[in-house]
Amino acid sequence: MTRYVIEPRVAVLLAEMGAAVPERHKLVAPTLLRSQVLALLFAEVRAGRMSKKSASQRLDYLRGLQIRLLGDRVLQGLAWNIAHELGWQDTFVAEYLALTKLQADALVTHSPELAAAARGIVAVASVSDLIA
Predict the structure, then answer these.
(1) pTM for this one?
(2) Domain harbouring 50, CATH code
(3) Rounded distance, CA 47 to CA 131, Å?
């Protein structure tokens, strides 16, 4: 079993693809994933790049994925330290790195910038690694 942390853009991409995540992989994410995905989809609809119906379908897909959402004190403390060490302005992305360090084998990201920042801290995987 491989445990992957997925970030919001990966969650939306999986929904767009309707991808099946193999049972041998387990998904985890910080609790803020739900709100971030909702905000991403809302922005797409508001900008006219997606219909509300498509956004709702993506949300339904994501609700059907078995993602364990975590956000305990230890994760928050580690996220604080990571954000501080990297000189970031907030802890949102740091929560994904902290959770990967604490609970997962790799972070799955679609962002080259996040992958570059994460590489010195955690293992990074691609969407194709996740769905393979």
Answers:
(1) 0.94
(2) 3.40.50.1010
(3) 29
